[in-house]
Amino acid sequence: MVASKKLNPSPPLLALGHFLTHEGLLDLVNFKYAAGAYTTLDLFLNPWWLFVAKFVPRWVSPNAVTLTGLTGVVIAVVLTVLVRQEEPATYINGHSVHLLSAAFMFTYQTLDAVDGKHARNTGQSTPLGAVFDHGCDAFVMSLNALLVEFQTSHPGTEADDASGVVGSLAALVPMVSFFAGQWEHYHTGVIEAGGVTESQYACMALAIVSALCGPALFQTKLVALVPGAAGLPSALLDVSVKQFMAFGVVVFAVLILVGCVARSVKTGSASLLHMAGSFLPAAVQLAFCLSICRAEVYREHRLLCLTAGLMGFADLNIRMVLAGVGQFRFPVLHLTLVPFAVVSLLGFCIPLEVEVHVAMVALVIVWQVVSILWLACDSITQICEQVKIPFLAPVRPKGT
Fold first, then answer.
1. Dist. CA 278–CA 273, nearest whole Å
2. Which of 55, 211, 327, 381 can pair with 99 through a Cys bridge, CB separation 3.0 to 4.6 Å?
């Protein structure tokens, strides 16, 4: 472990949307992005990204490129939610909205890789670009997890999905892994990209399969699809395709998580106590998510509860992005997550009418979205004013 470096003070406890500290803002101005090594898939796709970057006009800012991709994923979620309001028979065996989701995911992933190359090609690299890029990644991670749940389930299988813990972990543990990646950057100054592109393309592939075959395929027992599976141990005979995939997702996410922790302990500059303290909020958020999974409201409104938990992770992950770039101490307690914690504990500890609990969870989702927008707008405004750059308009290269 290298010598410990001094971090800027943490934000005040009541800093909800105004999270980026003045000292952190000053450090952010001098931020230099340091990425980890490309994976095999990254290297394979890099020529495509370079090719696309050549066609982005000079007058388009890198942040506009990122925002375009983000908008597409948001549209995909909205359209999918609207389709889910229809009769299950219209989408249970496949629906074109999932092909559209795959297209929007592909667009986001491509533009997410192109924005930085476009910034360097045109001399528009700024500290805001790095923050906005990774902040959007944090939000899209939660949206992709939600899309995966829409694509692999339908009302007739909600009871089965809600009864197993692996399915819940498959949606939530990747959020902890993303947090771990930003947490690693916070402690080491390097962002390892391993697994990010792979997971994005896995989501695209799943969306395409769901468009062609529908959620019903993922609820099919594995034994019905795999030749010779009847000879498997009896414990595996009742495993569905979704359960099998969920187990693989959890294992993959845990491996990424362990890698982030191992590298941070080996090369990080902080004490083990500080490392553990800065990771604690993600562990606590996961615990509250699992707590609401045991409530009656989860069994009847699983996707609503997952949305609340995933939005909380998006909020938390964006804050870790800011702390890593601004190098200020990451608070252990985040008041923006308290409403979800209270609602989770109430459902677990006190018998509540499901309708009442549903209303509370819905209000938490509204609050989390407002919190994320508040945080994003305040941080972007502060950075633009400090660095004296526009948000979406092109930045004039230095010396011109």
1. 9
2. 211
Strands, DSSP E only, in the chain? none
Helix (H, G, I), strand (E, B) or coil at 351: coil
**Both structure tokens of 294:** 């045991």
Query: Reduced to 3 states, what is the DSSP secondary structure of residue 179?
Result: helix
User: According to the model, what pLDDT value does residue 63 have?
Assistant: 94
The two three-digit tokens of residue 293, written as one number:
């999974």
**Per-residue pLDDT reduced to its tens digit, 230-265:** 666 666 667 788 888 899 999 999 999 999 999 989
- Answer for the pair 216, 92: CB distance below 8 angstroms, yes or no: yes
Q: At what angle do helices 272-292 and 338-349 cross, to 10 degrees?
A: 50
**Could you give the 3-state DSSP secondary structure of residue 328?**
strand
Report the half-sphere exposure of 225 (CA within 13 A, side-chain side).
14
| Contact indicator for 58, 101 with CB cutoff of 8 Å | no
Query: Bigger pLDDT: 388 or 32?
Result: 388
Write the DSSP symbol of residue 350: S
Angle at Cα 358 formed by Cα 352 and Cα 361, nearest 5°? Answer: 105
- Please state, in angstroms and as integers, the Cα–Cα distance from residue 125 to each residue in 34, 80, 391, following that order: 13, 35, 12
Residue that wins the pLDDT comparison between 344 and 399:
344
Among 145, 151, 149, residue whose Cα is nearest residue 210: 151
Residue 299 host element (H or E): helix 296-300
Q: How confident is the model at residue 1 (pLDDT cuts 50, 70, 90)?
A: very low
Whether the CB-CB separation of 295 and 219 falls below 8 Å is answered with: no
Instruction: Mark 84-121 as b/e (b = at least 16 C-beta within 10 Å).
Output: beeeeeebbebbebbebbbebbbbbbbbbbbbbbbbeb
Rounded (10°) CA dihedral 251, 257, 262, 268: 170
DSSP assignment letter at 109: H
Dihedral angle at the C-alpha atoms of 80, 86, 91, 97, nearest 10 degrees? -30
